[in-house]
Structure formats: structure tokens, C-alpha cells
Amino acid sequence: MKRVVMAACVWFGLMACVGAQEAAPDVGKPAREARSGPVLSAAGREALAGGREIVNRLRGLRGPERKLALEQAASAHDRLVEQFAGEPLVAAAAAFAAAELWRQQGSLAIAEKDYLRAAALDAPRFAQRGLLGAADMQRRQLRVDEAMGTYGKAEAVEPGSSRAQDARLWRARLLQGSERLDEAIAAFQSALECANGVSQVIETANFLALALVQKGDLDAAGRAIQHAEHAVETAAEDDATLAERHQKWLAAMSARNALQRARDERDGAAEDAVQFDAARRGSR
Q1: CB neighbour list of residue 9: distance below 8 Å, 6 or more residues apart
Q2: What is the rounded distance in angstroms from the CA atom of residue 226 to the CA atom of residue 198?
Q3: What is the pLDDT of residue 279?
Q4: Which of 13, 159, 184, 209 has the fewest CB atoms inside 10 Å of its own CB, making it the most exposed?
């Protein structure tokens, strides 16, 4: 019962916050806009702050109560999007928050819609994040072709960012899962060329090596792992803790075991063939 009451408080608390903003004046807005361009209104800041406070209260909820509270909080943020339609900065932030809540609640299609809405309302802040989130929702709904297209759009927004690298990797993984292995390998290779930093190199080289093992190109898979090893060896890390972490990530590459198993299987099959041929000849 206590959980149900808390869930209800989440809903009514945010609704009260939303209602309070409708009459809140913002006498300083024009002057601020004249100095530095569009900014959040006082009402918008207060509404978003209220939303964050309500979201923080979700941490104590579990099970059905949490699911209900997530739905209520997400719906309330959607109401903020409509209420602040004339203030895109507020509406976009509310839409993105709603998308995150719907994602946690399990309503992937609604989350996708809100991610895209945030991206459209405030491109400088949410274009890449929103597109990446929408692509994730499409992928989880098994809409593979749409997801690959949206990942491509997310990558193009800011190609040098870590989110762009995530988009590249997911697109390649979807190609691999769709049995388009040669295309996937090419996409992983392209992603490896774009990798920025040791951690990205290790992650991307691991995916590439796994795909090459799947194809049966074991020598190329070994070279991909060596590429990651070289990146770790040549990284000038002043932080000993970070250097140690990179060594651990390198040792934990799943492609290492996959490659070793493939080599053992190949070499074992070759040895069996030799023994069989020798036995066959001896029986003559």
C-alpha cells in the first residue's frame, strides 16, 4: 500500500508543478534573450526542476509500483511538451526526459516518438542523442532497416563524437545479425578507422575480430587484435590506473577466446585429416 501511495504522490506532485507553471510570470525573459539569445524561462526552469525532483523519487520504487509511476511521470513530461510548445528549449528537454522514462517503462514506440520529438525541437542539444535513442528503440522493436537508417543519421550529426561511434557499431552489428557479414566487416573496419581513444579501439577491434572469425578469416582476426594491442602499447598514459584498465580490457577481449577456439578447431581438423590419410594408406 505504501508503494501505491508513493506512486500516486509522484503523479500528483508533478501535476501540481505543471499546473503552477501556467500562471508563473517571467518578466526577465525579454532582456535575457536580447543579451544572449533564447534561454529557458523562469516557468520552464521551474517546471523541469520539478520534473527532475519527481524522477528522483522513483528510485525507491520496485515492480508494478515503479512501472506505474514511470508511466505517470512520463505522461506528465509529455504534458510539459505540449504546455511549453512555444518554448522549444523546455519542450525538447521534457520530451527527452519523457522518452527516457517511457524506455524504462517498456513503451518503446512512445519512447521512440519522444526521442525524435526532442531531436526536432532542439537540434543543438538533442539531435544526436534523440536520433540515437530512437534508433535503439527501433532496434529493440526489430525494425532493423529503419534502425540502421536512423543510426546513420545519428552518426552524421557529429561524426567525431562517442555517440557517433556507438551508432557505427550498432549499424555494423545489425548488418552482422542480418547475415550480411561482408557488409558488417566493412562497417566494423570503417568504425575502427574512426575510433578515437584506446577504449574505442579495443571495443571496435573486438567486434571486427569476432566478425572475421565468423567469416573464417582467422589471420585477419588476429591482425585486428594486434591492432588493439598496438594501440595500448603506444598510448602515452600518464594515469597508471587508466593504463592498467586498458590492459584489463585488452585481456578481456572476447575475440581472443573465439579466435583460439577457431584455430584449435582448424588445426585439429587438419591433424585428424592427416591421421586418417595415414591410416588409410597403411591399410592398403
Answers
A1: 57
A2: 13
A3: 53
A4: 159
Whether the CA torsion 69, 75, 78, 79 is positive or negative: it is negative
DSSP 197: S
Cite the residue boundaries of each domain of the chain with CATH code 1.25.40.10.
7-20+42-157
Please, which pLDDT band fits residue 239 given cuts at 50, 70 and 90? confident
pTM (two decimals): 0.81
Look up the CATH number of domain 159-262.
1.25.40
Give the pLDDT score at 236. Answer: 73
Cβ neighbours of 162 (radius 10 Å)? 12
Q: For residues 51 and 96, what is the distance between their CA atoms, to the nearest angstrom?
A: 12
CATH (residue range 7-20+42-157): 1.25.40.10
Cell of 21: 507553471
**Helix, strand, coil percent content, the chain, rounded in steps of 5:** 85, 0, 15
DSSP secondary structure of 110-148: HHHHHHHHHHHH-HHHHHHHHHHHHHHHHHHTT-HHHHH
Q: pLDDT tens digit string along 7-25?
A: 444 444 444 444 444 433 3
Cβ(10)–Cβ(40) below 8 Å: no
